[in-house]
Amino acid sequence: MASVLRQAARLASSRCLTQLSAASSTSRLGASSYNFSPSSRNASTSSTIKVQLDSNTGVAIMMFQNPPVNSMSLDFMTEFVIAWDKLELDKSCRGIILTSALPNVFSAGLDIMDMYGTTPEHRTAFWKALQELWLKVYGSGKIVVAAINGASPAGGCLMALSCDYRIMIDNPKYKIGINETKLGIVAPFWFKDCLENTVGYRMSEMSVQYGILYNSAEALKIGLVDQLVPEDKLISTATETMIKWFAIPDYARQISKAMVRKATMDKMLAGREADITNFVTFTNKDSIQKSLGMYMEMLKGRKAK
Ligand SMILES: CCCCCCCCCC/C=C\CC(=O)SCCNC(=O)CCNC(=O)[C@H](O)C(C)(C)COP(=O)(O)OP(=O)(O)OC[C@H]1O[C@@H](n2cnc3c(N)ncnc32)[C@H](O)[C@@H]1OP(=O)(O)O
């Protein structure tokens, strides 16, 4: 026990928990004090990220609006991180719901056009932005709930996996998973780690090799999402879930979260530069560029049919 506490103290001074503790305040609100009156809402909006913070409840809703499919472009990820940092610093915000402002898609994952035919410099900036986004969300001390209201492949799935709890609309047409191999590319180790941490070793072994996209019922069955709800209950359920989490004292929960996530975070922090080099080298290959080009053609051709 003493060593756990010593470790927790060490963690508290680490980068991760510096973020975590920024949000710290003990349970100010229980479910009974929940009041979602419109007057208490703070809105802030960038062109691709819309944020509504209810400072009465401490719940912020961060909506992606990068049409047509919320692909994670360099611009989108940069705006995401700016909006995220603002919420991290806001002590009135205790939890963040991630969702999409667009119909039928949570996020189509990484923007393929940022990887296809771009310069190594551009891809370096792109990958750094993705790492940054992931480190912020995965390492956050806030409670983060994914309200998955549509397709969520690859990078979209990573975003959901980085949250503390995943609620998805109960609709078989929405798919989620780490499908990179289907595009002829390889999900990096930290995508795989997040998946493995969530669904276990064997399931992720199958999942990453086959590049499986699961429908909502299958995703629930393997534990990739925690709950399914009808579309009209998604945000209310996410908000109610958040309020329940608020009953746990922040500091104890944050330290516990950091302990559980430390190994995965540390692995990324230690391998960050190598991970960028791998990505740039990998995407420099003609064969990979060809795969990405063919995939884009396929996506566009599908629409033309
Ligand atoms: C040795 C190891 C080293 C490791 C090196 C690392 C290597 C790289 C790792 C990369 C990691 C992560 C990868 C990703 O996240 S890749 C992205 C994967 N995403 C997908 O496969 C999703 C593709 N999209 C879809 O399936 C569908 O679009 C949708 C999300 C289900 C929505 O369907 P829809 O019918 O509503 O829309 P659709 O008509 O298909 O698309 C509308 C337009 O949007 C364009 N588009 C779709 N997805 C993307 C995307 N990800 N990036 C860019 N553009 C996208 C699509 O082409 C349409 O465009 P247009 O209107 O025709 O111009």
From TrEMBL:
Cellular component, GO annotation: mitochondrial matrix
Family the UniProt entry places it in: Belongs to the enoyl-CoA hydratase/isomerase family.
EC numbers, comma separated: 5.3.3.8
Catalytic reaction list: (3Z)-dodecenoyl-CoA = (2E)-dodecenoyl-CoA; a (3E)-enoyl-CoA = a 4-saturated (2E)-enoyl-CoA; (2E)-tetradecenoyl-CoA = (3Z)-tetradecenoyl-CoA; (3Z)-octenoyl-CoA = (2E)-octenoyl-CoA
Assembly mode: Homotrimer.
Location of the protein in the cell: Mitochondrion matrix
CDD domains in UniProt: crotonase-like
Organism listed in the record: Astyanax mexicanus (Blind cave fish)
GO molecular function: delta(3)-delta(2)-enoyl-CoA isomerase activity
PANTHER family in alphabetical order: ENOYL-COA DELTA ISOMERASE 1, MITOCHONDRIAL (PTHR11941:SF45), ENOYL-COA HYDRATASE-RELATED (PTHR11941)
Protein's UniProt name: Enoyl-CoA delta isomerase 1, mitochondrial
InterPro entries (alphabetical): ClpP/crotonase-like_dom_sf (IPR029045), Enoyl-CoA_hyd/isom_CS (IPR018376), Enoyl-CoA_hydra/iso (IPR001753)
Keyword field: Acetylation, Fatty acid metabolism, Isomerase, Lipid metabolism, Mitochondrion, Transit peptide
UniProt xrefs under Pfam families: ECH_1
Biological role: Key enzyme of fatty acid beta-oxidation. Able to isomerize both 3-cis (3Z) and 3-trans (3E) double bonds into the 2-trans (2E) form in a range of enoyl-CoA species, with a preference for (3Z)-enoyl-CoAs over (3E)-enoyl-CoAs. The catalytic efficiency of this enzyme is not affected by the fatty acyl chain length.
Pathway the protein acts in: Lipid metabolism; fatty acid beta-oxidation
Record-annotated membrane-spanning stretches: none
GO terms under biological process: fatty acid beta-oxidation
